[in-house]
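[Automated response] Your request has been received and processed.

Submitted sequence:
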Amino acid sequence: MSGQHVFITGGAGFIGCNAADHFLRRGDAVTIYDNLTRRGGRANLDWLHATHGGERLCVLEADIRDDGRLASAVAERPPDVVLHLAGQVAVTQSVADPREDFESNALGTFNVLEAVRHGAPGAALLYASTNKVYGGMEHVGIVPAGERYAYADYPHGIPESFPLDFHSPYGCSKGAGDQYMRDYARIYGLRTLVLRQSCIYGRRQFGVEDQGWVAHFVIATVLDRPIAIYGDGRQVRDVLYIDDLLDAYQRGIDHIDDLRGEVLNLGGGPDNTLSIWTEFGPLLAELAGRPVPVRYGPWRPGDQRVFVADIRRAEALLGWRPRVSPAEGVRRLYDWVSANRELF
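Generated structure:
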């Protein structure tokens, strides 16, 4: 169904601007609510305006920590769909400034929930949570598997039933929002859906060393900037291309009545994994047509040897599967960065 009003917090960010583009292409009206402090945000808005014009696109430069402004924005034009993507995104920054992290993520998410509860209680509300709610998983068995690591006992990846362990201020703040979303579905009947996302990557991602590592490595390779690997490079992550993420979002919205209060892992799953350098490095060298040098540093505290999400519940409940392979997705991202060097 098109012609809806979609309200996106953090809509100028990487996932947010791609989501806005998706809904505008469907014929929906989109309101972006963003404080525009993230690198690349204004360039993403310029791209959206150039692509779609301004008739169905409204941009509000504001912060989710401002509960009065947020509540007024939601109530003034109640949306049919709310994507809550705004917040502080880096573990390292959360350690450096835990108060800012708490206010942006935990309090900001509470403000979104209250704004929707009072101003648009019938809206579908999707929350971008994180696999960091599972913590460091220090007791999960890890074994060497050639040039990578693997789980000893989780062939399908980590399921949603895995015990939560809000390790780091970031894990605490995002985990608080995760659980508030679940409870507002139970207590107030809101149509919430929590999506615990793994490594999402794709076009219009301005990745840096602390967040968005796939894009960071691609940008560094294209621009011949230094790359640091912490650990031995055999760490494994499941990666999900932006188009596959947006497909899952759309399916979640379309079936929100059946999914209200659910929590789903969204990632590449076991079929879409990369070791961060022993496999990703040769892929980048092939795209660049030259060796890509790196320097190695010590392991960072809490860095997981492996994270792979078990996505079988998402596949079953959404009728969804990732379709873009890591090789194809990285090639698309590499081509986009190469064609848009001036943005970096």
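Summary generated for your ticket: The two ends are 37 Å apart (CA to CA). The mean pLDDT is 95.
If you did not submit this request, please reply to this message.
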